[in-house]
Write a structure and sequence with these properties.
The complex is a heterodimer. By secondary structure, chain A is mainly α. By secondary structure, chain B is α+β, with helices and mostly antiparallel strands. Chain B has 2 domains: 48 residues, no CATH class; 151 residues, no CATH class. Chain B is built from 7 helices and 10 strands. In chain B, strands 1, 2, 3, 4, 7 and 10 form a 6-stranded antiparallel beta sheet that branches. In chain B, helix 1 packs across helix 3 and helix 2 packs across helix 3. The longest helix of chain B has 19 residues. The radius of gyration of chain B is 21 Å and the shape is extended. Classes of the chains: A mainly alpha, B alpha+beta. Chains A and B meet through helix 2, helix 3, helix 4, helix 6 and helix 7 of A and helix 1, helix 2, helix 3, helix 4 and helix 5 of B.
């Protein structure tokens, strides 16, 4: 297990174009990143491609990473996630119907929340998520973790897209208020 | 439809991932030039980051690293855009190195300093920095010409506060207390000749800070108000 501090040192070496450090960073983070992009893209071939692009970008932008703004893992996960979301929105993703397991997250939300809670900063977020109505909490999880679009959420919840958008924004405002110090 | 005023809502949905393709593209472009949006996005990334722990890790293909390294080698061989990218990286690295070595004074200010890279080229030999505490704070674009020791300060997003003035300071171990470089009053570019008193090596390694002072500036000769930014200049194009 690589500690957050070790990851910062690795990133600083990667910023100096250190290929060995890059391989270490990859070893320490690639399964997390691949999990994230695979869940969003739902197809291994697309996820393979996006993962490669993400690590090329991480290599190129390593010098931009600033420890003050957050953990290394957050920074690199964000790069991969953004790339995956761009791809998911660009291509018509596979229908949710082809991936029935995605529709089951509601029953699985408790274990998802338990996993979030185990993380360092996850406790507070979990507490705040639990204050949302269950359906809206699941919507946030489905959007963030599974990459569901507004349209897909509208289909799943039988609501107009604009209603979904309103719900999402309200949920996010509520989360922000709950997380505020 | 994007509501231009709801920057935080837009940032939140961008990070959540529910914007459609054109909205995402718009945000990707806007965040480059809108510090407030960029900061809101970063704040949301931090808020929601623990959710990624809900996703079970999956091992990528065994050959993925080799493919990535192969792509990197191909890129390194490219000569067209490669040079400017590397130059940009070196510049950022120079900044980062400077930031790590920043003086105890700057450290004690304990503030977060954001640096934005320039898109446009400028005169070689200049020292530059764009400094900003966070998106809610004013940003200042600082250019120093070491040869003639003239500093140009341009408030980028620094709304004048009624009854307050921004005051610029130079901080260096050899100077003892911070020394005032004068007020940055009003919008527009201010050319500051006050650096003439300082040696180039002091200027190059000094920390520059802007504090918010009572109108007309500090009367004590030292910063009295909140420091809204502090940072170092870096050689442009080095």
């Amino acid at each position: 297990m690589t500690t957050p501090q070790q990851l910062v040192i690795l990133m600083q070496r990667v910023a100096r174009q250190d290929r060995a450090a890059f391989a270490e960073l990859y070893a320490a983070t690639s399964s997390k990143l691949f999990g994230v992009v695979l869940r969003i893209l739902r197809r291994r071939d697309l996820a393979d491609e996006v993962l490669q692009e993400a690590y090329v970008k991480i290599w190129e932008r390593a010098a931009d990473y600033r420890p003050e703004t957050g953990a290394v893992i957050t920074w690199i996960t964000t790069i991969a996630r953004n790339r995956a979301l761009d791809e998911a929105r660009r291509k018509r993703p596979d229908s949710v119907e082809d991936h029935p397991e995605i529709l089951n997250i509601a029953t699985d939300a408790e274990s998802a929340l338990a996993a979030v809670m185990r993380g360092e900063d996850g406790q507070r977020l979990t507490d705040c998520l639990k204050r949302l109505e269950p359906a809206r909490r699941d919507m946030v999880l489905l959007a963030y973790c599974e990459g569901l679009s507004r349209e897909e959420l509208a289909e799943k919840y039988g609501q107009p897209v604009n209603t979904i958008k309103t719900w999402l924004r309200r949920s996010l405002i509520q989360l922000k208020g709950c997380l505020a110090p | 439809m994007i509501n231009g005023d709801d920057i935080d809502g837009l940032a939140a949905e961008y990070v959540l991932g529910t914007l459609d393709q054109s909205e995402r593209a718009t945000v990707t472009a806007r965040r480059q030039r809108e510090p407030a949006l960029e900061a809101a996005i970063i704040a949301w990334e931090r808020r929601l980051a623990p959710l990624a722990d809900a996703v079970v890790p999956v091992e990528p293909s065994p050959d993925a690293l080799a493919k990535i390294e192969s792509r990197l080698r191909t890129r390194d061989g490219a000569t067209d855009n490669g040079a400017s990218v590397i130059q940009l990286k070196k510049r950022v690295n120079a900044w980062r190195a400077a930031a790590m070595l920043s003086s105890a004074v700057a450290a004690s200010l304990a503030i977060f300093v954001g640096v934005r890279e320039f898109q446009r080229p400028s005169t070689p030999g200049n020292l530059v920095a764009v400094l900003q505490k966070d998106a809610a704070s004013p940003a200042f674009l600082v250019t120093v010409n070491v040869e003639n020791r003239v500093m140009t300060v341009r408030p980028v997003a620094a709304p004048a506060e009624p009854g307050k003035s921004y005051e610029l300071w130079i901080v260096h171990d050899s100077l003892g207390a911070p020394k005032s470089l004068g007020l940055i009053d009003g919008p527009g570019v201010k050319v500051k000749p006050q650096l003439a008193a300082y040696k180039p090596d002091v200027i190059e390694s000094a920390t520059f800070a802007v504090s918010l002072e009572p109108e007309g500036g500090s009367t004590t000769g030292a910063p009295t108000g909140p420091v809204v930014f502090a940072g170092k200049v870096i050689p442009e194009g080095k």
